[in-house]
Design brief:
The complex is a heterodimer of chains A (244) and B (119).
Chain A: E1 5-17, E2 23-32, H1 37-48, E3 67-70, E4 73-76, H2 82-85, E5 90-94, E6 101-103, E7 106-107, H3 110-118, H4 141-149, H5 157-161, H6 163-167, H7 174-184, H8 192-200, H9 213-217, H10 224-240
Parallel strand pairs in A: 1-5
Antiparallel strand pairs in A: 1-2, 3-4, 3-5, 6-7
Chain B: H1 5-37, H2 41-48, H3 52-80, H4 89-118
Helix pairs in contact in B: 1-3, 3-4
The chains are: A alpha+beta (244), B mainly alpha (119).
The structure holds iron/sulfur cluster (2 copies) and FE2/S2 (inorganic) cluster.
């Protein structure tokens, strides 16, 4: 934050203020070399208006708490450099889409994680007594499928960008289903069929239209669309085989 | 609501799509052939009437189209209708199901009437 101001001088930052019925307010922030959008928002909070509400923790793309809508697209603000997104010296920062706004840039993540639970996105230990190390061959198909989706940090960007979530408020969304897919493929899990049934229930994996917006925007480079397609395929076969 | 319903609708949607795909291709190819060949309506009817093959072909076509179209319509209504986000959700879902059911039945009735006239 204490790098010398770059020659461009000032950045105009429009920030959403208030709840769902709020509006954008404009702030002027000195430009810095390698400044991130999170740096700009932090500057506003520290130097202009301490009442600005927003979230961050790690500042290095690990915790997933700083996701906001930057110039219309969801992004990790800590990993988004101003020079990449500013248009004629302006950046517009809004809260994530598809989630209730608490205030300013902070959204309520409760629906996101409630749906995560509904899709049974948690590991189920296998029966007691299996104490030894589980051996999972690194090149087994299950391990590869789980590997492809396991690096999710729960930032909610895919959830914010998914149109089906916007159209169908019951839809559990890409992150929860991606997580379910890793568990369906986790040979150590004690209830893989249960994960599949939960992911396929109601507005679960079958509500997805395979738009791939989630895959396009996931900053970790995951492909929830592929995970959801895997769930659909597996649920299809299980249904034809008469799974409960 | 409907824990397993969406799964079975998806299965029906996929299977009807798999049935429809080759039928549509044969249908289009036949249309092009018939038009190019300059067959009159009477000449067409003389070939299709009494033909079990064409009755089966278009009977299956109508059934698959009714299933596929109805499920698709239900999804479109549920996602696009403005009232699906509010407190009327359950009623809206039922209404979409009823509308799609009526649509599917209409296709069945009209379709089989046409198949009956053709064969
Ligand atoms: S899948 Fe990607 S975009 Fe979605 S929550 Fe996980 S890390 Fe974020
Ligand atoms: S692929 Fe599915 S989950 Fe991903 S954005 Fe599209 S509808 Fe949403
Ligand atoms: S602050 Fe942790 S990911 Fe951005």
């Amino acid at each position: 934050m204490d790098a010398a101001p770059s020659p461009e001088g000032e950045l105009t930052v429009e920030i959403w203020r208030g709840g769902a019925d709020g509006r954008f307010r404009t702030y002027r922030v000195p430009r810095r070399r390698n400044q991130t959008v999170l740096d700009a928002v932090t500057y506003v909070q520290r130097h202009i208006d301490p009442s600005l509400a927003y979230r961050f923790a790690c500042r290095v793309g690990v915790c997933g708490s700083c996701a906001m809508t930057v110039n219309g697209a969801p992004r990790w603000t800590c990993r988004t450099r101003v020079e990449r997104v500013a248009r004629r010296g302006r950046v517009r920062v809004a809260p994530l889409r598809n989630l209730p706004i608490i205030r300013d840039l902070a959204v309520d993540m409760t629906p996101f994680f409630d749906k995560w639970a509904r899709a049974k996105g948690h590991f189920v230990p296998s029966a007691a007594g299996t104490q030894g190390f589980a051996e999972v061959a690194p090149d087994s198909p299950e391990r590869r499928a789980a590997d492809a989706g396991v690096e999710c940090i729960g930032c909610g960007i895919c959830y914010a960008v998914c149109d089906v979530v916007a159209w169908n408020p019951d839809y559990v969304g890409p992150a929860a289903l991606n997580r379910a897919w890793t568990l369906v493929n986790d040979v150590r899990d004690g209830d893989r069929a249960g994960h599949l049934a939960a992911a396929a229930a109601g507005a679960g994996c079958h509500a997805c239209h395979s738009h791939q917006s989630c895959a396009e925007y996931c900053p970790t480079g995951l492909n929830p669309t592929a995970s959801i397609a895997g769930l659909k395929r597996m649920a299809f076969v299980a249904a034809l085989k008469g799974a409960p | 609501m409907n824990g397993r319903l969406e799964l079975w609708l998806f299965v029906a949607q996929r299977i009807s799509a798999a049935v429809l795909a080759p039928l549509v291709l044969v249908h289009i190819a036949t249309m092009i052939y018939v038009v190019q060949g300059g067959l009159s309506a009477a000449e067409i009817l003389s070939r299709t009437q009494g033909s079990l093959w064409w009755a089966g072909f278009y009977g299956l076509f109508v059934a698959a189209a009714a299933v596929h179209g109805a499920i698709g319509l239900r999804t479109i209504i549920r996602e696009m209708a403005p009232w699906t986000g509010g407190s009327l959700r359950l009623a809206a879902g039922v209404a979409a199901g009823v509308a799609a059911g009526v649509f599917g039945l209409s296709i069945l009735v009209l379709g089989f009437r046409a198949v009956g006239a053709l064969t």
